Amino acid sequence: MRVDGHAPGRPTPDGEDDRELLRRCARDVVEAAEGIRAVSARTSGALFAPALAASVRRRPRTGLAAQWALLRALTNKQGLGGSAITAASGMGQVLGAAGEALGRESLAALVAVTSLRLRIAAVLIDHPEFERDPG
User: What Rg, from alpha-carbon coordinates, does the chain have?
Assistant: First the structure.
């Protein structure tokens, strides 16, 4: 019996099964991770866009400020994470690798790991013996 008054594996008072609740939450979290990854891709695409590079040459003050803002959003710990730069080649690839080398993790990857943990918790409800035997 758990603190909320129902046994594991049985429906909660609102009628929803613990396993299904965890799996539904895991799906929601993985959708959020995919959204974050898409934002990272669009942001890194904007950072290395030729139009922004031309803007930096035409108006260095505002163009450089825009580039720095995008770079901070991609690499800052409070932003999308250090390895969020997804450019396929050139400077973007170097910056993404540098973020990984510094140990900064992508926010999308951290959110995806949370979804995986929710799915593991759903499996452990059915098979608690897996918790005791990690092999």
Answer: 21
What is the end-to-end Cα distance of the chain in Å, rounded?
A: 27
The pTM (predicted TM-score) of the whole model is 0.70
Structure-block tokens of residue 49: 């866009």
What are residue 18's phi and psi, to 5 degrees?
-60, -45
Nearest to 12, CA basis, from 132, 131, 125: 125
Q: Which residue, 9, 27, 39, 16, is CA-closest to 125?
A: 9
- Residue 62, classed as helix, strand or coil, is helix
Give me the torsion for CA of 34, 38, 43, 46, rounded to 10°.
170
Phi, psi of 125 (to 5 degrees): -65, -45
Residues 113, 42 contacting (CB under 8 angstroms): no
Query: Does the pLDDT of residue 7 top 70, yes or no?
Result: no
